[in-house]
């Protein structure tokens, strides 16, 4: 399921991400993580996380590839489920690679189930994931999305909510258009 408590937006300044309520109340509009805390969390999770697994590279387009409105991404993942699902959810493959070769900007997406092989602990329900260390992080300043430990679609199909809901609005702001999801 979605894990909003483990979904963060990483920016230099908290106020760039979420409103800061007075009186110490927690914002209901998202969770912020500092760049320093994110680097620690990243180093705790990603090194060696795909060991023993196949790493897939997925060039994809949000929208028709030749449209002036298309936005591109490249996702790396260790999940065959993600590869198959991204083929349904996005336009992917050689036409996208051709656009990237022409210099099209793209969002960098990294996903890992967080269960390198050989397994150190048995799988629960035969589904590889790492629920204790789940972290879905969005870096709008650098156009990156990093997702660790979850196989749930909203957390692993990074062109979906992560790109469309959290990164596209920043791209829209920078380019002078409106992102709607």
From TrEMBL:
At the highest ranks, the source species' classification is: Eukaryota, Metazoa, Chordata, Craniata, Vertebrata
SUPFAM superfamilies associated with the record: PEP carboxykinase N-terminal domain
Q: What is its EC number?
A: 4.1.1.32
* UniProt-recorded Gene Ontology molecular function terms: GTP binding; manganese ion binding; phosphoenolpyruvate carboxykinase (GTP) activity
Binding partners and assembly: Monomer.
Q: What is a single cellular component term in the Gene Ontology annotation?
A: cytosol
* Keywords from the named record: Decarboxylase, GTP-binding, Lyase, Manganese, Metal-binding, Nucleotide-binding, Pyruvate
State the family named in the UniProt similarity comment for this chain: Belongs to the phosphoenolpyruvate carboxykinase [GTP] family.
Q: Phosphoenolpyruvate carboxykinase GTP-utilising N-terminal domain: which residues? A: 1-172
Specify the domain of life of the species encoding this protein: Eukaryota
Protein's name in the database: phosphoenolpyruvate carboxykinase (GTP)
A biological process from GO: propionate catabolic process
What the entry lists under Pfam families is as follows:
PEPCK_N
Signal peptide from the UniProt entry: none
Q: Which cofactor does it need?
A: Mn(2+)
Recorded hits in Gene3D superfamilies, A to Z, give: Phosphoenolpyruvate Carboxykinase, domain 1 (3.40.449.10)
């Amino acid at each position: 399921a979605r894990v909003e408590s483990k979904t963060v937006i990483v920016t230099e300044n908290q106020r760039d991400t979420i409103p800061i309520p007075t009186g110490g109340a927690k914002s209901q509009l998202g969770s912020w993580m500092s760049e320093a805390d994110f680097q620690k969390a990243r180093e705790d999770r990603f090194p060696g996380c795909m060991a023993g697994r196949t790493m897939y590279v997925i060039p994809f387009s949000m929208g028709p590839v030749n449209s002036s409105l298309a936005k591109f991404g490249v996702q790396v993942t260790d999940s065959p489920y993600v590869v198959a699902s991204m083929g349904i959810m996005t336009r992917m493959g050689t036409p996208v690679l051709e656009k990237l070769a022409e210099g099209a900007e793209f969002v960098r997406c990294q996903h890992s189930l967080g269960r390198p092989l050989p397994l150190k602990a048995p799988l629960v329900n035969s589904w590889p994931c790492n629920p204790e260390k789940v972290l879905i992080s969005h870096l709008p300043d650098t156009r990156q999305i990093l997702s660790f430990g979850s196989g749930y679609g909203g957390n692993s199909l990074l062109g979906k909510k992560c790109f469309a809901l959290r990164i596209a609005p920043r791209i829209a702001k920078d380019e002078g258009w409106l992102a709607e999801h």
